[in-house]
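[retry 2/3] MmcQ/YjbR family DNA-binding protein: previous attempt timed out, resubmitting with same input.
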Amino acid sequence: MERGEIFREIEKFGGAVYDHPFEEDAETAVLRHAHTRRWFGVWIRVPKRYFGEGEGGEFCLNVKCPPDLSAALRQNYAAVLPAWHMNKLHWVTLRLHGDLPDGEIAQLLRLSYDMTLPRRQPRPPFG
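[retry 2/3] MmcQ/YjbR family DNA-binding protein: success.
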């Protein structure tokens, strides 16, 4: 799955946006809920040494994931790892050109979006 496909996928969610919040890193994109600004994903370049592969970097997607599902995914797919630069219990890094099918990536992106929705919708202000 490519970057543009990921951004097109989040357009389907309604209320999802992405931005580039790090001045020193214009490539990293944070996927957020527009209303709460809460993160549900990060498009990020991960050093290949994290994968034990030497020099350079590879763009990956970090998403939130329940710990039990995360463990099962890591057992079944080499492309799913504990998250780079995030809480490794609650987030995973998805290698987008590995053995994880695009449909699974889309489902995990949606799951992350759903998991980070506010538990209770805020009331609109008076007026």
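[retry 2/3] MmcQ/YjbR family DNA-binding protein: The chain has a mean pLDDT of 93.
[retry 2/3] clearing retry counter.
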